[in-house]
Amino acid sequence: MADELSSLRNLVERVRVGMLTIADPAGMLTCRPLQTLELDADARLWLFVSVGPPNVEEMSHAYRRVGVAYSDRNKQDYASFSGSGAIVRDEAKMRACWNAWVELWFPRGIEDPDLALLCVTVEQADYWEAPGSASRQFRRK
Asked: Which residue from 18, 58, 85, 123 has the highest number of Cβ atoms inside 10 Å of its Cβ?
């Protein structure tokens, strides 16, 4: 799996900010930018999210199925990930992922009760690398 993920990891590390897509309670798709903390060796994306109001209702179901898209316009590389998401409150993992950028959005730090990690278990990723690359696909085995 590591070889299959290398191009995807390279893109995620270059771009960092992905557009997270979820379905709201009415079934409408909504997108928001989030900084990706890591694409790990187990094909999981890690992102910090706020789970407090007004997001509480959304959290009840929204992260069952998610999409995250990345675009490096300068290199003409693109990726679209889809999978299942889960809210994780692992303090050790949160501390390991903490950085100055996250602190801008969560100034109360790791102790912020609204702070959690979103772990997206990638089931499929479609990606395109320039020049003239046809779509390639990663699928969880």
From this structure: 18
